[in-house]
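Aggregate trends can hide what the representation actually does to any particular protein. In the encoding step, the backbone of a single protein was reduced to a row of integers, each denoting a local shape. The record that follows shows the chain in one-letter code together with its fold in token form.

***
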Amino acid sequence: MKETKLHPPSAFEPLLTDEVLEYFATPMLDIYFDVHEILNSENDNNYTRGTAIFGRTYEQFKKLIASQDCPVEVLLKDETFRFVFQIGYAQIGFCKGDFTDPKSLKLRKYTPTNYDLFQVDNNQPVIWKFILNEPKSEEEEAFVEFVGFNLATVPVAYWRSNDNLDGNKLHLVDPITPEPIHLDAPSVGDLDEDDLQDEDLDTKFK
């Protein structure tokens, strides 16, 4: 795979620290392991587990935000199944898939409105996702990635819930700190995919 240079999320939004990201990533992983331990009968399959993981993560994230225990302020922007919350200027969702294949995540391309800066700056993330990465073999472990995608849905920011990074796939670099710019928050409707239907759950968390 071609090497991709990625910055830590805090390079773009200082509030996206390790502590903040772990606040959401750790429960997301706990849910994955709990579901696989409980739903392991002959009547269970990837679909039953996938829908359970999505539903439990959805409910857990709402509780985490409502509890106000996060180290920074978190705003719930859309509590439908699209589920978008905001930290600083970052508007965030969650899904399952491979961040190197944005099409598998069903990301909708961002349409700039009052975020005119992003029309010409392709190095800035405009879509943020917590992504559940399930193991592909018994030797691998599940982990959560937090990825920021630019206008072209190319990943430009990356964080992972463990340190076992594959150096052949990506290379984290120190950011060049930009001058601070005050921008209005983007419209939620432009950032995320359509409301989830039953078939979307099958695709996203199967």
